[in-house]
Amino acid sequence: MYDVIVIGARCAGASTAMLLARQGYQVLVVDRATFPKDIPHGHFIHRQGPRLLQRWGLLDRIVATNCPPVTAFTGDDDGITLTGRDLIVNGVAFGYGPRRIVLDKILVEAAVEAGAELREGFTVESFTSDGARITGIRGCIGGRGPIITEQATVVIGADGRNSVLAQTVQAPKYEVVPPLTCWYFSYWSGVPVDELRVAVRGKKVVFAFPTNDGLTGIFVGWSSTELVTVRSDIEGQMLAAIDEVPDLAEQVRAGRREERLYGMTDLPNFFRKPYGLGWALVGDAGCHKDPYMALGICDAFRDADLLVESLDDGLSGRRPLEQALAEYERRRNEATMLIYRQNLDRAQFKPLPPEMLQLRLALRDNQEETNRYYQAIEGMISPETFFNPENIQRISAQANTEMVKS
Ligand SMILES: Cc1cc2nc3c(=O)[nH]c(=O)nc-3n(C[C@H](O)[C@H](O)[C@H](O)COP(=O)(O)OP(=O)(O)OC[C@H]3O[C@@H](n4cnc5c(N)ncnc54)[C@H](O)[C@@H]3O)c2cc1C
To answer: What is the pLDDT of residues 268-321, one digit of tens each?
Structure first.
């Protein structure tokens, strides 16, 4: 009998298992995968992600895998280009792009080091219940063989957007928006990108960032309405999109693609109620978002942290468990809802709101404030210190004065 069983041992599940085990709980974490194992998803970690990894003592391990810190961000929205530089606070850069085969292994190892029991190659097929509460899992090694049952006070689904636990308990969904974009990506050598580059071109977007071993990941996202055209010639469509970013295209032509093209198309947007009697959800299982703003991993880390605080309250008896888990849902939604909706706007390739456009225009040629703009967006300084009416007015006035002078 465990305190907690976690299904899924990647960003959400391994982090949750590690944090619970560090608090002394008896944790079993299972995954049908055997690690190290890659997963064809993106992996740029920013916003609260790097700070949490540092707090957990894992950031140095990630950097040590030959994964460079990323301290510059160029956002290029249909021709308005802004580069934030020196985006590093207390030695923590704004972003890191470790390959998933590297990141997930470090997380799984940290969970085991903390005392969690790891069962790899184990597929959860169904659940035990006492008629009201979920009380455990049933599954088997390698998808066949004898059925094994394990029991726990709480079963956590960190098993991705098609979560078997969420489907079994019929976790209610809300804020549902069907898939908006489709993505193809690969990795190049000889393309010396040392920043996060995001270039929007009409109804498509090109991302580039450095990852392990000197490779550059290049991801292209299109509106889902373009899927048939994109699929008719994936490589040609990818290169055509990259060609619309001329300096990157030049580097790509001089470099070499080292891996096959990967793609993902079925990417719905939703929240799920993340708890019920004897169960909870974290990561993509609880809230799945379009990859546009690269929020999945950093949000999975944050939600693991929030969930473990609530579970600790409940399991230690400080509060009734379901009340503590209701607090988890409230805090998760408070932290996510605004950016979730902004992400939907971006994934629909809506134009920037006029006030944002004006601000970006005013920031051109103002490096110091551009750096602060990106720091505020990335949560490296409190957003209110930048996005307050007096500051925005001051930046606009400064830009007007410069314009008159020239
Ligand atoms: C194209 C694309 C690009 C993206 N780019 C970024 C990015 O740049 N930055 C970012 O932060 N996010 C990005 N994301 C999102 C990110 O990949 C996800 O948010 C993240 O993987 C969620 O982690 P997770 O642990 O919740 O789920 P997953 O990573 O999906 O892990 C779930 C685990 O559960 C296991 N599992 C599932 N069912 C069972 C079962 N029945 N029994 C046992 N094990 C099971 C699986 O084997 C898997 O290991 C991108 C996603 C896509 C598709």
So the answer is: 999 999 999 999 999 999 999 999 999 999 999 999 999 999 999 999 999 999
Whether ligand 1 lies within 6 angstroms of the CB of 110 is answered as no
> 142: helix, coil or strand?
coil
Q: Is 41 in the pocket of ligand 1 (CB under 6 A)?
A: yes
Place of tokens 């972003």: 95
Tens digit of each residue's pLDDT (9 = 90 or more) over 36-77? 999 989 999 999 999 999 999 999 999 999 999 999 999 998
Distance 146 CA to ligand 1 centre (A): 27
Q: By alpha-carbon position, which residue is closest to atom 16 of ligand 1?
A: 296
307 CB near ligand 1 (under 6 Å) = no
| Cα–Cα distance measured from residue 205 to residue 61, given in angstroms and rounded to the nearest whole number | 31
Q: Which residues belong to CATH 3.50.50.60 in the chain?
A: 2-43+99-177+269-346
Phi-psi region of 299 (alpha: psi -120 to 50; beta: other; left: phi over 0): alpha
- What token pair was written down for 372? 């602060």
2-24 pLDDT per residue, tens: 999 999 999 999 999 999 999 99
- Match domain 181-264 to its CATH number in 3.30.9.100, 3.40.50.2300, 1.10.287.470, 3.40.50.1580: 3.30.9.100
pTM: 0.97
Residue 239 Cα to ligand 1 midpoint, Å, equals 26
Phi, psi angles (nearest 5°) of residue 169: -85, 0
The answer to whether the CB of 226 falls within 8 A of the CB of 182 is yes
Closest ligand 1 atom, CA of 285?
26
Note whether 157 and 148 are within 8 A (CB): no
Structure tokens at 149: 């049952």
Q: Which CATH class is domain 2-43+99-177+269-346?
A: alpha beta
